[in-house]
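FAQ: What does the model actually see?

It sees only this:
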Amino acid sequence: MTDNLPTPHRRDFLRVLGAAGLSWSLWGEMGCASAPAVDLKKFQGIFPIVQTPYTDDNKIAFDELEKEVKFLDKTGVHGIVWPQRASEYQFLTFEERIEGAELIVNANKGLRPTVVIGVQGPDTETAVKYAKHAEKLQPDAIIALPTRDSGEFDLDEVLEYYKAVGKACGLPMFVQTTGNMSVEFVLKMAKEVPTLLFVKDEAGNSIDRIHEFNASGQDRVTVFTGAHGRNLPDEMSLGLAGNMPAAGWVELYVKAWNFWKAGKHNEALDVFSKAMLFVTQAGVYGFPLLNYALHLRGIFTNWSIRRPDAKPLDEDAMREIERVYEFVKPELVV
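And it is asked to produce this:
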C-alpha cells in the first residue's frame, strides 16, 4: 500500500471560501466578522478523545483532567478532543462542560497538540451556547455531533443545526457523522457552512466512504475517522488526514501513524496489531475499559463512569485487561 494524499491537504481557508463562491462580506453577514486561516499541517495525525475522570463522589476530577492533557502531550499525539462520546459528553452538565473546556484549552497552552472542543448539544440553542463559548476560548477548532448520537435524521434539520453552530463560531469545524448522514450530504453542508472544513466520519464503512470522498473530486472537506481506528492502515493508504481514538493506549496509534508516514509499513502494522488487542476488549467490556486503561497508566484515581447502562468491570475483566496492558507496556512511552 502507498500513501496517496489527496489535494484537500494542500488547501487553505481562503481557497475554500473562494471555491464556494463566498466573500468576506458574506462571511460577515453570517455573523462571523473574521476567520483564521487554517494550517492543515496542524490537522493531521492522531487526535485522541480526552476521557473524563470522576471523583469517588461522582464529580469531575478536574485535576486529573489536566493531568490527562499533559500526559497526552508526552505521548506525542498530534491533537486532543473533548468532550465527545468517549468523554461521556451526554452525562456532563452544562456548567461542567464549560469549566472543562476552559481547563483543556488552558492546560494545553505551551504544549504541542492541536485542541478541538466539542460543542454539540441536545438542541440547537444549547449547541449555539457552547459554540459561542468556544469562540471566546479560541481553541484550534470545534467539533459537533448532531443533536443525538445516531438514528435516521431529518437532514434538513441537521443542516440548519450546523448552520446555526457555524454562525455562532468562526472557528474551523468538524462535523461528526452518524446515522444517515451520507458523504453527499456532508459535501452539501460544506457548501452552505463555510467553517465546515473537517469531518470525523463514523456513519458507515470508513473505507467505502473515504473512496467516495476522494472520488467526488472535492477539495473542501478533510477526512478523519473514529471507531477505535480499526481500519487505520487501510485508511492511511487512502490519504486519511487523521483518527480520533480513545486515550488509554494512544501511543500505539501514534507509533503506527508515524511509522506509516515514514514508509515503515511493517513496523506500523506490528504496533497497530497491539492496539487492536485493546480494541477487541473494548467491544466486550465497553466504556469502563477506557477509563480503567487510564487508571492502569496512573492518570485516573478510579475508573468510574456515568453511563447508566454500562456493566461494571468484574475481577475477570480486570485481569484480562491487565494481561493485555502488561503485554503492550514495552511499546508505551510514558
